[in-house]
Amino acid sequence: MDGDISSLMIQLLQIIWINILLSGDNAVVIALACRGLPPKSRTIGIVAGAGVAIVLRIIFTLLVVSLLAIPWLRLGGSLLLLWISVKLLTDESDETSVTEAGSVWHAVRIVAIADMVMSLDNVLAIAAVAKNSNLLVVLGLCISIPLIVFGAQLVIAMIERFPWLVWVGAALLGFVSGQLIASEPAIQPYLGGTSEQTVELGLGAAGAILVVALGAYLRKRKHHEAANPA
Predict the structure, then answer these.
(1) Which domain holds residue 24?
(2) What is the secondary structure of 41-109 as a DSSP string?
């Protein structure tokens, strides 16, 4: 019983950390959309926008959790998650094109649409960690999204001061993607009697190493190309 509770707590903490790591851009979108509102309306816009984002994210994630039960979708999802993990290390997001809202409901609409468009990576990662637990999905999102919205500057400052946190987060996503491959029902007959836990640990570790190595290589190549333009 204690082991089950510990496992659930670890999963919950993983969901919160992944969502915080991947949602920095979403928090910036909320700030940009609401920056043109009067101070009182701005608070309402931020709270309402965050509330809509939570509801939509929960619905979206629960839908993805159910879809991952379809054969081979876990494998496709794991490959997409690997790409997202590497992209986290090599890309810089840009939210400067977000429209400034003129009213509270306009701001809420901008936030809702932007969050749906930008949250595929969050949703897929959280669905993979939750492992069919709707309770973990709801709890993790309800805890982490308010932290993101109201602590966006703190989160950004932490990542800027400790850049290695991004690498840890990317490695975690790689580990989750490896575990997602191991849980694919279609490949279970080919595991040769190896225990599921052993396969999960092995593929998870391989995924984490692959993400960090590939991310480091692509970043080095990107910096080299920038320093030596053709």
Answers:
(1) 2-227
(2) HHHHHHHHHHHHHHHHHHHHHHHHHHHTTSTTHHHHHHHHHHHHHHHHHH-----TTPPPPSSHHHHHH
